[in-house]
Write a structure and sequence with these properties.
The complex is a heterodimer of chains A (301) and B (299).
Chain A lengths: L3 E12 L2 E12 L3 E5 L6 H8 L7 E6 L2 E2 L4 H5 L2 E4 L11 H11 L6 H10 L15 H12 L6 E5 L7 H16 L4 E6 L2 H7 L2 E6 L2 E7 H4 L5 E7 L2 H9 L13 E5 L4 H10 L4 E8 H11 L1
Parallel strand pairs in A: 3-8, 3-9, 6-7, 7-8
Antiparallel strand pairs in A: 1-2, 1-4, 4-5, 9-10, 11-12, 11-13
Chain B lengths: L2 H14 L1 H32 L11 H4 L2 H24 L4 H6 L1 H6 L5 H35 L4 E7 L2 E7 L5 H26 L6 H18 L4 H6 L34 H28 L5
Antiparallel strand pairs in B: 1-2
The chains are: A alpha/beta (301), B mainly alpha (299).
């Protein structure tokens, strides 16, 4: 298997004349949390569905656990836990019954204590006997994760796992992802249309836009603080730009009509000090990563 | 993953859905209404049926209206409606899972699509058989208890000729077993058709209604007595063979017109009808597997 759990090469998928995924390639390192970032319709779910054999690729190669997906689906899927889009389960059955059904598919133990332990792990202790249709969205999400964990998978795929959750639910899912990665050594693929979501949980990421890969790499490198975009609001813009153009900060300025700088985040206090010394009043300072800016531009396009 | 486990899962899911029991309740209600109506006013019905032959054929009407006769009348009516009840569950097999979003969840587990489809088909067969057993209990056992037993009269209209046949009491039960067995095969065609149609939809209403429409239209055409349709259309409609179970009650007679105990007038016709129905089931399931294996799951 080597160091990669997933190896994808030249993967494409077309629906009639619409190209949903265009020749993308990536690799997911064992034990890492890998992020799929892109706005809705970017091709994230389609790619994840192809990794799970739900959709047949138009072209390209997929290898998981060192084996080609085609022809090894049973072996590969027996080591994967996944939630694609919504965590849909049988609403007319209880949480326990849902777990029992899927544990039978894996021929795993269905003892009450094993299921209790799993429900406790995902924060559903004491709710196993309730029908799923009475669960909140967050509880359904957690039950979905419990089902995904039934086979103790080496590789977990979570498609937009925080969608529709309240802040507490989002935080709990984030903690679960961290727990599985750090404490249980699982490899996780997580998708989101929110950069900060991916930034908080992933080690590496790929950015998809309209089915194409537009960036890929380590999250720390892609979100390098040295490339922070700083925007300063002031009532004396003309004077401020004049002072900046005559100073060492000139090279960092990215616009002559606004106080926008691309610079190291650590240097922001020095810039503020410089402006204050020149009696430039500052009403607001905003900083974001240049990648975020790039991503937002794409999203707004 | 054994097929038995998958079947067990499918049956468990069917047993937990309220809609499953609608069919059982509907059958019970219809049969009870029939039995009540016949108990209250059965003689008038018999008079109506025997209108043309009353003068030439002496009959103890009270004795003729026994449990076996009642069951035959009920089956004649119900076996037209039961396909709708079978479609209610079978049409939901794939499309219902797609609608709930559980289809993609199942397919991300290490089970082949063929296994899933076959398990769902087998579960539909089990459901159909359960429905028939329920129907047999209510329409035969309960009728025998209410109306008693005796020789059975069978009214038959073949073209311009009306015919009444009498089957001896000790020659009836095996015919009912055979008829219910045949009906199970016939209804399995409906289940296979509904499962096939459910592959193309993401909610169960579409396949259920489409199945019912196909059965209704084909049944109407199958009942048309127009020579060109008899010759060129009816042989190709599965609905032409759905009522083949009646053949078990058409008893062969001697040249003098005396019924031959244990005989069937046209066994070959029943056998060929059964083969055609089984062929339909095989073709529909193989086609369903072929399509399902290649289907992109977008639900």
């Amino acid at each position: 298997m080597g160091q990669y759990i997933v190896e994808v090469e030249g993967l494409s998928k077309s629906f009639a004349s619409f190209e949903a995924v265009k020749h993308i390639s990536f690799q997911i390192q064992k034990g890492s949390v890998y992020g799929f970032l892109g706005q809705n319709g970017a091709g994230k779910s389609t790619t994840m569905r192809m990794l799970l054999s739900l959709i047949q690729p138009s072209s390209g190669k997929i290898s998981i656990f060192g084996k080609p997906l085609k022809g090894n689906e049973k072996f590969i899927l027996s080591n994967i836990g996944a939630i694609i889009e919504k965590p849909d389960t049988y609403g007319y059955l209880s949480g326990y019954d849902n777990l029992k059904i899927f544990s039978k598919i894996f021929a795993r133990s269905t003892s009450q204590s094993a299921l209790d332990a799993l429900l406790e792990k995902v924060g559903l202790k004491g709710r196993g006997k309730d029908k799923v249709q009475s669960y909140s969205q967050g509880m359904k999400q957690r039950l979905g994760i419990a089902i995904a964990l039934l086979n103790d998978p080496d590789f977990i795929m979570l498609d937009e796992p925080t969608n529709g959750l309240d802040p507490q639910g989002i935080s709990e899912i984030r903690n679960l992802i961290g727990h599985f990665s750090k404490n249980e050594g699982k490899t996780i693929l997580v998708s989101s249309h929110l950069l900060n979501e991916i930034e908080m949980v992933a080690d590496s990421m790929i950015i998809l836009h309209k089915g194409e890969k537009i960036a890929e790499g380590k999250v720390k490198e892609l979100l390098d603080p040295a490339n922070t975009l700083v925007t300063i609001e002031t009532s004396q813009l003309v004077s401020a730009i004049k002072f900046i153009q005559e100073s060492k900060w000139c090279s960092k300025l990215v616009s002559n009509h606004a106080l926008k700088f691309e610079m190291d985040k650590a240097a922001i206090p020095l810039l503020v000090q410089f402006l204050v010394e020149h009696q430039i009043p500052i009403s607001n300072i905003q900083s974001n990563h240049s990648l975020e800016n790039y991503f937002l531009k794409l999203t707004n396009a | 993953m054994s097929m038995l486990k998958l079947l067990e899962i499918e049956l468990y899911k069917i047993s937990k859905r309220p809609r499953t029991y609608i069919s059982f309740a509907a059958i019970s209600a219809i049969v009870l209404i029939f039995q009540f109506a016949f108990k209250a006013d059965g003689e008038n019905y018999m008079n109506l049926m025997l209108q043309g032959i009353n003068d030439s054929f002496q009959l103890d009407k009270q004795h003729a209206m026994n449990g076996y006769f009642m069951c035959y009348i009920i089956l004649n009516t119900l076996l037209v409606q039961v396909p709708i009840l079978v479609a209610l569950v079978a049409g939901d097999a794939i499309s219902g899972e797609a609608n709930m979003g559980t289809l993609r969840l199942i397919l991300t587990k290490p089970v082949s699509r063929t296994e899933i489809l076959v398990a769902k088909f087998l579960a539909s067969i089990v459901y159909t058989i359960m429905l028939l057993i329920w129907m047999a209990f209510f329409s035969l056992m309960l009728s025998l208890w209410i109306f008693g037993s005796g020789d059975m009269l069978v009214f038959r209209v073949a073209g311009e000729v009306s015919q009444i046949m009498q089957i001896a009491q000790d020659d009836i039960v095996w015919r009912y077993f055979a008829a219910f067995g045949y009906a199970a095969v016939a209804l399995t065609v409906i289940a296979a058709l509904a499962i096939f149609l459910s592959l193309f939809a993401e909610n169960s209403i579409g396949p259920i209604i489409t199945t019912v429409c196909i059965v209704l239209v084909f049944t109407i055409v199958s009942n048309m007595n127009i020579p060109i349709i008899d010759q060129h259309v009816k042989p190709y409609l599965f609905t032409s063979y759905l009522v083949g179970w009646k053949g078990f009650f058409y008893i062969a007679t001697t040249q003098d017109g005396i019924p031959i105990k244990g005989s069937i007038e046209d066994l070959k016709s029943i056998q060929s009808s059964l083969m055609i129905l089984i062929g339909h089931i095989g073709a529909l399931i193989l086609l369903s597997i072929y399509i399902f294996k290649r289907k992109d799951i977008l639900s």
